[in-house]
Structure formats: structure tokens, C-alpha cells
Amino acid sequence: MSSEQALSAALLRSDRFRLEREADWTRLEDIVTKMEKGKTRRLLDDDVLALPTLYRTLLSSLSIARENSLDAGLIDYLEGLALRSYFLVYGTQTGFGRWLGSFFGGGWSRAVRAIQFDIWIALFVMIAGAAIGYILVAGDSDWFYALVPGDFSDVRVPGASAEALRGTLFGGQEGDGLGVFAAFLFSNNAQVAILAFALGFAFAIPSILLLIHNMALLGAMLWVFAQRGLTVDFIGWLSIHGTTELFAILLAGAAGIHVGRSIAFPGARSHLKAASDAGKRAALVMVGVIFMLICAGLLEGFARQLIDHTAGRFAVGGGMLLLWLLYFIGFGRERRRPGA
After folding, report:
1. What is the pLDDT of residues 151-181, one digit of tens each?
2. pLDDT per residue as tens digits for the range 97-110
């Protein structure tokens, strides 16, 4: 057979190969193009269901084309279509906007409810930490200086007068008094939240200790104000941003405890599988924690300075707490069908 005859035979095989399968390729390319342009809703249900089958058929065609050394242009076309199809079949098909809607639309709240046992553990630890700080300072005021950084021990120290302490809560002295302490609390609590989650892999022990230490600081400061009958005013001052900020720390600590508990007690799963599952769930919770810390920062930066009376502060702080509870408890639950 001459070279011209061999070339003609090869072209004939390539044309016949294309004619036999081109309808499937064209259909797949049309589906892929629409999905790439964000027009998935225009696709028929049959087209969506046929996508994996058409993709496998394309791979089979590509394999045959390579083995039989068919037209190079045809092989390039099939390879390009296979690459485009791969990302739609196996890659993520959710844009950032849609993922964000899914996250706030129930994904975050479901992840939080999934670690509710760990949230109860973290809540107990945080309450215990605040109680420990309060009791230690009540028994020996020197503990205050061990728990609270020295940069913030000006008028807010054991033995301070009620007038001096009240002046840091009201009257527009936020620039230097408790305003500085609030900024410190926010910065410190943001670090604690991240560390409480990150250290969870060590069987959650560092996360628990971190929560205790952080809340002991708050308990110590609470004692100082309680001794002058300013407990309610101090809690009201703190509640504006504190209900959101402390809730964020609670969830971060619970996420770290969840990971550590899953590693320590994997059950029937392997340690690697247990850690992977817990890590994915906890990471989703932590994305929301960052959002809560941003909200707390805005509240600390604006609302706390604008509202100069305890009742209003409790209204804002209590409203934020109620909002978070309603979202986490009731939002994103799957509705049961009647008779199901």
C-alpha cells in the first residue's frame, strides 16, 4: 500500500469514527458550555443525568483515537472537551456567591448543631474559668495582677473607689479607661478563638486550658466591679459586644474540643478518618466564628461608645444573643414532609 493510500485509509477511519460518535460529543459540549456560562437552569433533567455517561463515553473515544493514531486535530478536540468536562463532573460547581448563600442559609447552623455536645462542654469550661478567676481574686487580691495584664491595672484594680470605676463605664471616658480594655479584650479573644480551635488536635486539652485562662481574666475583672456594687453595670457594658464575642469563643472552643474528642475517641472509624470528618465540620464552624468576631468588633467600636446607659446596652447585647440563638437553634433545619 502506497503512502497516499495509507493516508486515505486513515482519513476514512477518522471520518467514520467521528460520524459514529459526533452526536454524543456535540451534546456533551453543549451541556458543558451552558454550565460554564452559568446557564445550568436551562438544562433539561435528562441532560444533567446524562453528563457522567457522556463524559465516560468521551474518554473511551479519546482512548480509541489515541490507540489508532487518528487525526491529531480530532485528538486535540477530544482532550480539550475531556478537560472541560472533568472539572464539571468532579470539581466544585458552586460559585462563591452560591456557597455563601448556602453557608448562611443553613450550612453554618447545621454544623453548629452537629457539635452541640462539645458546645456544652465548652460552656461548662468557660463558666468554670470565670468562677475560678472570681474566687481566686476574692480570696487573695494579688491574684488579680497575675490574671490581668499590667497594662490595664490603672483605676480598675482591687480597692478602687466606686466613683472611679463608674467613671470608666459611663461619661464618655472610653478613650483611655475601659475603652482600651475593651480593645484589648477583642484582640485577645480573637487570638483565643483561633488558638482554641487550632490546638484542639492535642486531644482538646490545650483548648480547654486556654478557655479557662481567658475566662479567669474576665472573672477577676468582674470581682473588682462587684465589690463596688457595679456588677450589673459592668455586665451591661460588656454585653454589647460580649454576647457575640464570647459566643464566638464558645463555638471556637467547642470546635477545637470536637476535633480533639474525635481523635481521642474515634469509635469504629480510624483516627485519620475521625480527624478528617471532625476537621471539616469544625472548619465550617470556624468560618462563622470569624464572621461573629467581625460583628463583635463593629459593636465594640461603635455601639458601645454611642450607648451610655445600662438598659440600652443590655437591649443591644440581649438582642444579639437572641438573634444568634434563634439562628443556630432553628435556622436551616430540614422540614419533614407530612406523613413522613
Report:
1. 665 688 899 999 999 988 886 544 444 556 6
2. 777 888 888 899 99
Q: Quick check: helix, strand or coil at residue 150?
A: helix
Q: What is the 3-state secondary structure (H, E, C) of 82-146?
A: HHHHHHHHCCCCCCHHHHHHHHHHHHHHHHHHHCHHHHHHHHHHHHHHHHHHHHHHHHCCHHHHH
What cell does 269 get?
A: 472509624
Asked whether residue 244 is assigned to any structural domain, the reply reads yes
pTM of the model: 0.71
Question: What nine digits make up the cell of 317?
Answer: 447585647
- Give 118: exposed, middle or buried? Use CB within 10 Å, 0-12, 13-18, 19+: buried
Mean pLDDT over each residue of the chain, to the nearest integer: 84
What gap in Å lies between CA 118 and CA 259, rounded to an integer?
9
| Separation CA 68–CA 37 (nearest Å) | 34
- What is the C-alpha to C-alpha distance for residues 47 and 30, in angstroms, rounded to an integer? 10
- Select from 45, 37, 130, 125 the least CA-distant residue to 88: 37
> Quick one: 57 and 122 in the same domain?
no
Q: Are residues 103 and 140 in the same domain?
A: yes
Amino acid at 199: L
Q: Tell me, what's the pLDDT at 255? A: 96
Which of the four pLDDT bands, split at 50, 70 and 90, describes residue 43? confident
Question: What 3-state DSSP class applies to 305?
Answer: helix
Same domain, yes or no, for 146 and 203? yes
**CB-CB contact of 220 with 133 (8 Å):** yes
Instruction: Supply the range of the domain harboring residue 322.
Output: 99-330
**Residue 302: which pLDDT band, with cuts at 50, 70 and 90?**
confident
